[in-house]
Amino acid sequence: MAPERWLFWHRRDLRLADNRGLAAAAAATPAVTGVFVLDPAILSDPSMAPARLWFLSESLRELQQAWQQAGSTLVVLRGDPAELLPRLAAGLGAAVVAWNRDVEPFGRERDRRVARALQADGRKVLADWDQLLVAPEALKTGAGDPYRVYGPYWRSWRRWVEEASATGTAASGGLDPLPPPSALIDLDPAQLAGALADLPLTNPELKHGFLEHGFGGAELCPCRPGEKAAQEQLAAFCDGDSRSISLLGYEPGRNIPGEAGTSGLSAALKFGTLSPRQAWAAAQQARPLARSEEERYSIQVWEQELAWREFYQQALFYFPELAEGPYRPQWRAFPWDNDSGWFEAWREGLTGMPIIDAAMRQLNESGWMHNRCRMIVASFLVKDLICDWRWGEAAFMARLVDGDLAANNGGWQWSASSGMDPKPLRIFNPATQAGKFDPEGTYIRTWLPELRHVATRDLISGEIAPLERRGYPAPLVNHKVQQARFKALYATIKG
DNA sequence: CCATATTTAAT
DNA sequence: TTAAATATG
User: Fold this and answer.
1) Distance from CA(A141) to C1'(C8), angstroms, rounded
2) What is the CA A327 to C1' C2 distance in angstroms?
3) Can you give the distance from the CA of residue A145 to the C1' of nucleotide C8 in angstroms?
């Protein structure tokens, strides 16, 4: 008798190794078929970035080959998962459909619909956590509430991760990365063809992969698609050979946008070509390489970035209203200027403030922006241009290769001072930020080649003589004037 | 053991 | 300013 067939539904876990849901399926039966559904509701949304379509398409193409090498098939469909998954499961004769859980309101509602449809057909559903080191339910404050403040969350998160690490294996609740499944069993070709006959199947085309993405910045983007590239990037970042621009030099290297001092793994973690447990394990293996207190501290700072990612995901899980706008009610009445001309100048990198324009051009050309610059341009849009941060949030989502609702919304709410974090106003002075983090003007000159001739001091301050500008715009606003205006408007909503 | 007041600390 | 931890009744 043939073994029971399971269907595994990939979503934001585009890898075979250390995929908890897939491993659970493979532990139950070797007869596992994979599926990914290209959902027009997501792909055609205005917030979908060409860079993400590129990353998704390339990662899927590699994942489909990996399934084949593991002995089975990854089916790629296009349409509504709630309609297609029951049909595919029926065609395959799958008894169980498994997937990894998500935190986003849209995904959770979709998953409920899919589960209801499958269960109505008498199929079992298996869904558990994979995309976080620590499941949202695992950490609560002393009062039993979800954490709203990063500091206490980080301490609690680290304690939990260290205790779970000590137990080792996944079976005993540990965090050791799992190997990929191998020796899977496929349906025989005729049976598979029959199961797929009436389904909207998508095959990778020779040139573009699964999707027409129209993204031209792949060469400039630091994020590499696919499971294999993610492993290589992680290993290179953690290896200790290039200490100043890697994990061991992460602090302060991570804050210098003109150097490649960050891991570039944001998109890999967003799409799950890399698991957070793999990232955590690599950081632990690098600890013996650290030869100074600074290098040990660098590892911890990177671990804290993994914790920020999980903090914002658990926040969205427990407070889905974050996705709709300001968490703090008084911010909902803020009298934004919302000048659409200023907003467009910001979005296209034409504000006349070099550090802002360099950062926005990096985003527009490469699909990625250095995190320090994300904070600087966010503060500028909100506190200098006095524009609703949700416009900036949407603009980031429309272009970022790693655009993720929880992280992007969390970052913008942090910058706008409207989030759960109880700290008062944060106003960055863009010139001070440029002076601290791009002191030689390296980053500015990289992305604003038309200003390469300008003295570094003027690139940082933004005070460029009209004859030196050569077509580069004059500053749109004056920081001193605008921050005073912002504070006056803020006073009207306080309390 | 609760509920409430006070203290502490926040990338 | 306010969440979280801790002290107090």
Assistant:
1) 20
2) 14
3) 22
One domain for residues A127 and A145: no
> pLDDT tens digit string along A221-278?
999 999 999 999 999 999 877 777 799 999 989 999 999 899 999 999 999 999 999 9
Judge contact between A126 and A96, C-beta under 8 A: yes
Give yes or no for a contact between A38 and A14, defined as CB atoms under 8 angstroms apart.
Answer: no
Look up residue A467 and give its two tokens: 């004859």
Look at the pTM and tell me if it is higher than 0.85.
Answer: yes
Chain B bases near protein Cβ (<7 Å): 9-11
CATH of the domain at A42: 3.40.50.620
Looking up residue A233, the CATH number of its domain turns out to be 1.25.40.80
Q: Which of A357, A330, A340, A326 is nearest to A474 (CA)?
A: A357
Domain range spanning residue A155? 132-170+226-318
Note the pLDDT tens digit of each residue in A269-316: 999 999 999 999 999 999 999 999 999 999 999 999 999 999 999 999
Answer for the pair A353, A459: CB distance below 8 angstroms, yes or no: no
Please tell me whether any atom of strand C lies within 7 Å of the Cβ of A426.
no
**Whether A144 CB is under 7 Å from strand C:** no
Copy the structure tokens of residue A229: 């590239």
C strand bases under 7 Å from protein CB: 1-6
